Structure formats: structure tokens, C-alpha cells
């Protein structure tokens, strides 16, 4: 890709007014984007120890980047790092040999360095702030009931459960609310399934798909979370269906914007005009926006899945070379 073209795609992040607005109102998303981009660069440049340190630091800074650990670990295979194709004998190897092959030095270094960095920073913060640090940094996410400016379909449920009376009833019944289980499909998709299927094909695009899924399925979805996946668009868009097919790309963009417009119109009626729009207005607009996001996620996954994995490509090249010889 030429420097001029690369700069054009990078402008999606660098010159985006949404990024500038959110980053100047007290949010740290822009700074987090620097850490995540540095993490991606370190992995692709095979700066293994630095990758682990940046991963541990990013997760400490804001917890969601932990989803990238699975993709990075899965991406760091011996065939990729050594630059040769996979052998047929690997399929017939014993389970013990396969485990030893999986636990290569690069994966161990990333795991150990990220864990040590994460634990060291947490210990320092705990010594400085005590239990409130753990409560507000980690445990709060399991019970949070943020419903303001929340595009998620869980918005209405969170609103109903945020009242003191609802909290007292929930405590008395010791019941596990539906909103507390929302992280199960979210993490299964973003931290397990997508990395296993896609990461060896295109790591940057896989991280985009992970982040998009994490935000779309999150029980709290606000505008600042969109920045989490927008930073990956310059890596994905050049060869994407969204640009190759104008009808698909324009339709996806229009629907993504309209999903927010419908929700914001209902939110305006609620907060400024005092009209109760929780049911059905906000709820239906949240579902519509969720469906749009799932559709875009499907396009991204299909694009990445259509790419040949690096190991398959190396194996095919090696096989062709042997036939020519």
C-alpha cells in the first residue's frame, strides 16, 4: 500500500471528529488506542516480550483488551515465526507432542510477561488505594446497571433494575439477573470463537471483529466504545467488502448511523421532553441497532474467513516448490 493511500485510511482515526470530541471530554479512549496499536505493532514485529508487557499494561489500563490475548497466543505458532509450512506428520503426533508444540517459547514469554506486568501494576494500585481499586476496576463490571446513553438492548432492563427498590428485592431473593449473564455470549464470541477461527488468517482484522463483537454484545454500549474498534478500520477496510461493494458499504454505514439516530431521538424525548419512551421506543431502537451491528460483524467475519491462513499459504507454497523440484 502506498504511503498516500495508507495516510488516507489512517485519517479515519486521526482526523475523525468523533474521536477528537470523545478524546477531549475527559475520556481516555484515545490514549488506550495508542496502547492497543502499539500492542498490535509489537506482535506483528515479533517483539515478543514487549508484546506481553503492552498486553498486561493495556488490560490494567482498561480491562477489555484481555480479549486479544487469545488471538495473539493463537497467532504465535512456530510455522509462522520460523517461516515454513506445516508438516503432515503434525496431524499424527501424540497429544503430548502437540501440547509441547503449542507451548512454544514465544507463547510462554507473552503469557508470563503479560501476567507479571498486570499483577505488578495491580499490586501497586491496591497498595495505594486498597479494596476500592478492585471494586471499581473489576468487580463493578459484573453488577453495573448503567442505562444512561446506553444503545444496548439491555438498556430498559438495566433501568428497571437500577432503582433502590429493585436492588433490595434482588438482594433479598439472591437471584442472578439476566443482565448479569450478558457477558457469557459476549465473551464466548469475542474471546474464544472469533480468535480460534480467524486469528491465523489476519490478526488486525481479527482484533477488529473481536472488538466489534465485544461492543455489540456488551450490556453497556455507549458512543465512546465505538472508538475501540474504529482504530482497526485502517487495517481492514482496504480489502473489505464494505469498500469493494459500494451498495453493501453505503448501506452498512447508513443503517449504522440510522440505528443511533432512532435511539437518540427516543432519548431526546425522554430526557428533554419528559416523555416515557423506554417501552417500546428505546427498547426497539436498541434492538434495531444491535441487529445492524450483528450484520456488519457478519460481513467482517466473512471477509477475514475468506482469507487463506498464513500457515496454509506457507504449506501450499512449500508443496508447489517441491512439485517443481
Automatic annotation (TrEMBL):
The lineage's top-level taxon is Eukaryota
Q: How does it sit in the membrane?
A: Multi-pass membrane protein
Is Membrane found in the keyword set? yes
Location comes to: Endoplasmic reticulum membrane
Checking InterPro entries in the record gives:
PIG-M
- Chief subcellular location equals endoplasmic reticulum
**Keywords for this entry?**
Endoplasmic reticulum, Glycosyltransferase, GPI-anchor biosynthesis, Membrane, Transferase, Transmembrane, Transmembrane helix
A Pfam family for this UniProt protein?
Answer: Mannosyl_trans
Hey, which family's this protein in? Belongs to the PIGM family.
**Functional description taken from the UniProt entry:** Mannosyltransferase involved in glycosylphosphatidylinositol-anchor biosynthesis. Transfers the first alpha-1,4-mannose to GlcN-acyl-PI during GPI precursor assembly. Required for cell wall integrity.
Q: What is the name of the protein in this document?
A: GPI mannosyltransferase 1
Gene expressing this chain: GPI14
Amino acid at each position: 500500500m502506498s504511503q498516500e493511500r495508507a495516510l488516507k485510511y489512517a485519517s479515519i482515526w486521526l482526523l475523525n471528529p468523533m474521536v477528537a470530541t470523545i478524546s477531549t471530554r475527559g475520556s481516555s479512549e484515545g490514549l488506550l488506542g495508542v496502547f492497543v496499536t502499539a500492542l498490535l505493532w509489537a506482535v506483528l514485529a515479533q517483539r515478543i516480550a514487549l508484546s506481553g508487557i503492552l498486553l498486561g499494561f493495556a488490560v490494567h489500563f482498561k480491562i477489555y483488551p484481555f480479549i486479544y490475548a487469545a488471538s495473539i497466543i493463537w497467532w504465535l505458532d512456530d510455522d509462522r515465526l520460523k517461516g515454513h509450512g506445516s508438516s503432515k506428520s503434525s496431524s499424527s503426533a501424540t497429544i503430548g507432542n502437540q501440547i509441547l508444540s503449542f507451548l512454544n517459547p514465544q507463547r510462554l514469554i507473552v503469557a508470563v510477561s503479560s501476567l507479571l506486568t498486570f499483577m505488578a501494576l495491580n499490586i501497586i494500585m491496591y497498595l495505594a488505594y486498597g479494596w476500592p481499586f478492585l471494586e471499581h476496576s473489576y468487580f463493578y463490571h459484573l453488577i453495573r446497571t448503567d442505562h444512561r446513553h446506553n444503545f444496548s438492548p439491555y438498556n430498559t432492563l438495566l433501568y428497571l433494575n437500577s432503582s433502590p427498590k429493585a436492588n433490595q428485592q434482588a438482594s433479598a431473593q439472591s437471584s442472578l439477573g439476566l443482565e448479569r449473564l450478558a457477558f457469557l455470549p459476549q465473551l464466548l464470541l469475542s474471546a474464544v470463537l472469533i480468535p480460534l477461527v480467524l486469528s491465523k488468517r489476519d490478526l488486525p482484522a481479527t482484533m477488529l471483529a473481536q472488538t466489534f463483537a465485544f461492543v455489540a454484545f456488551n450490556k453497556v454500549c455507549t458512543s465512546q466504545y465505538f472508538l475501540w474498534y474504529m482504530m482497526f478500520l485502517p487495517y481492514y477496510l482496504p480489502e473489505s467488502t464494505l469498500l469493494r461493494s459500494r451498495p453493501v458499504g453505503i448501506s452498512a454505514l447508513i443503517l449504522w448511523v440510522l440505528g443511533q439516530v432512532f435511539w437518540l431521538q427516543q432519548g431526546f424525548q425522554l430526557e428533554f421532553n419528559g416523555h416515557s419512551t423506554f417501552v417500546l421506543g428505546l427498547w426497539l431502537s436498541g434492538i434495531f441497532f444491535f441487529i445492524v451491528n450483528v450484520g456488519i460483524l457478519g460481513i467482517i467475519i466473512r471477509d477475514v474467513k475468506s482469507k487463506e491462513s498464513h500457515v496454509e499459504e506457507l504449506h501450499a507454497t512449500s508443496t508447489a516448490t517441491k512439485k517443481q523440484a
